[in-house]
Amino acid sequence: MVLAIDIGNTNIVIGGFEQSEILFVERISTNQNSTVLEFVVSIKTILELYHIPQTSIEGSILSSVVPSINYVMCTAIQKLADCSVIIVGPGVKTDLQIAIDNPAQLGSDRVADAVAALEEYQPPIVIIDMGTATTLSVIDENKRHIGGMIVPGVNISLQALTDCTAQLPKISLTPPKNCIGKNTVECMKSGIFYGAAGCIDGLLDRIDKTFPDTPTYVATGGLAEFIIPHCRHQIQVDELLLLKGLRSIYWKNMS
Length: 255
Hints:
By secondary structure, this protein is α/β, with parallel strands linked by helices. It has 2 domains: about 1-85, 2-Layer Sandwich (Nucleotidyltransferase, domain 5), CATH 3.30.420; about 95-240, ATPase, nucleotide binding domain (Nucleotidyltransferase, domain 5, 2-Layer Sandwich), CATH 3.30.420. Helix content is about 35%, strand content about 25%. The chain is built from 7 helices and 11 strands. It has helices at about 35-50, 65-80, 110-120, 155-165, 185-210, 225, 240-255, and strands at about 1-5, 10-20, 20-30, 60-65, 85, 95-100, 125-130, 135-140, 145-150, 215-220, 235. The strands form 2 sheets. Strands 6-9-8-7-10-11 form a 6-stranded mixed beta sheet, with helices on both faces. The protein has a 5-stranded mixed beta sheet with strand order 3-2-1-4-5, with helices on both faces. Helix 1 (about 35-50) packs across helix 2 (about 65-80) and helix 3 (about 110-120) crosses helix 7. The protein starts with a strand and ends with a helix.
């Protein structure tokens, strides 16, 4: 089994795969103060939950947007499984053409998303990754990553709304009952959900105008399943997109 880990600003996604089969996907909170032992315990607990012996781990791959955690996580993996760790970044084979001003600035999570999208969907493709930030990655008809957009994520927007106002309460991120709220909480939920959906629709409308044909829209990330159903565009939700990309990159570098 190969262990695949994506370190995000809010969550760390931990998955395992054998050849083309994905065995499990779980999330733990990102904590920059976590120790090697704490990561070892977290990963071991997940493996035990799925009845997977740690001795079955033969390799691992890591993508990260929180560089300060990388060393601790790599050490934890090596302590747990005694295997090498591929870190997605410069020098790692991805076969992705990156046509932006500075290709090294493209986040490893967006690289993995793009690699998987090109293997499963018809370009041009717009990838919407809804995590701490909402990112849109655009792949043209020639299979080149040509750029994208970064906007505040849903939770960031909600946190700013409550932190910067005197009377608006902290609320859970659950779908609103109606578009038009009848109380403060419902108004906030409606604004956050439909606001995020409207933002995505508006950005896709603008991207549409740059292509002669409508692109394929693919959404992923922890919040995609909650927000995308409220969008007007036809958007496919692929929760495993990033993990599929890490799987593909791993085998590209092992062949």
